[in-house]
Amino acid sequence: MDKKIIIPTAVLVLLAGILIVVWVCMKNGETDNPAAEIRLNGEVVKTVPLSEDCEFTVESEGGYNTVRVQNGAVSVVAADCPDKVCVRTGEISGGGVPIICLPHRLEIVVVNGKSGFDAEV
What we know:
CATH architecture of the largest domain: Sandwich
Shape: elongated
Low-confidence stretches: 115-121
CATH superfamily of the largest domain: N-utilization substance G protein NusG, insert domain
CATH topology of the largest domain: mini-chromosome maintenance (MCM) complex, domain 2
Number of helices: 2
Mean pLDDT: 86
Order of helices and strands: HEEEEEHEE
Largest sheet: 4 strands, antiparallel
Helix content: 10-25%
Number of strands: 7
Structural class: alpha+beta
CATH class of the largest domain: Mainly Beta
Radius of gyration: 19 Å
């Protein structure tokens, strides 16, 4: 093979590998006392610890999303939006990848939960 092909191909494979590792780390990053923060129109409407199994519906002007917290992860299990991207996102349990429903302006992120103290030193 020609060096003009091998070197760029090797660089692309290396960059793809690095991007995959970064994505996996962001998606599955651990947090202390993880909690699901439910935001509607950019405002926090509910915070649920991931240790507390529950299911509830978030209603907005555009429709509804049914959110499930189970086994330390959060997911949207039902929605009446046309594309259902939020449902297909699946479960998240940490990291920087949120669940987003653009038609309903809903965002679910995993954050560090409360420690029970007013301040930490």
